[in-house]
Amino acid sequence: MAGTITTNAVVLGDSATAANNFQLRSNTDGSMKLARGATGALGDILTVDASGNLANAGSPIQRMVLSTAQNTTSGTTALFTGIPTWAKRITMSFNGVNYASGNLQVQAGNASVETTGYASSMSVNSGTSVVTSNVTTGFLITSNSGSANSGSFVMTLVSGNIWAAQSMTNAGGANSVVMAAGQKSFSGVVDRIQLTAAGAFSAGSVNLLLEG
Q1: How far apart are CA 201 and CA 150, in angstroms?
Q2: Residue 17: which domain range?
Q3: pTM, to two decimals
Q4: Is residue 4 part of a domain?
Q5: What is the pLDDT of residues 31-40, one digit of tens each?
Q6: Is residue 3 part of a domain?
Q7: Residue 185: CB partners within 8 Å, gap ≥ 6?
């Protein structure tokens, strides 16, 4: 094409010392990198993978992505898949989630949702009493079925595939606050997470904020 120069690498800088220059290189797999030295041999500074994800040589660049909200108006699960490998903290926010019975909990996993091995405790403070409970089937959120539950759940990577979690919810503005915490070592890198109700959903919505 007339007026177009095609090359896969350019040198930035005009220093007579090669190490004081930089190389910008475009790769055939759709990735790109900026590296130190005229040949790029002194180490990467910034890389962009084929999906457009940025990273620098010292540490990953902070990313924050809001997913698409899901309505919780039917069924018993709201599943989010495709969680990127760079995600180190996952925040699930609830808006007026109502469900029929039992506990509301969060489950996650790799390739499939894991339903065992959780260490989760929940404390329900109604203003006049405090009730606690424990489960191993997921991260507990609340037991306030039949109410519009709003709040947030945060899951943070500790190391490897071990995640710690905590949450706080309120039932429809009533004098009831639910706090919960837990941890789990997953079988692989977490790539999905779901909100699970014992009884069918009837109202509300849920969404994820991914950070890494």
Answers
A1: 14
A2: 9-56
A3: 0.74
A4: no
A5: 888 888 878 7
A6: no
A7: 117, 160, 161, 162, 163
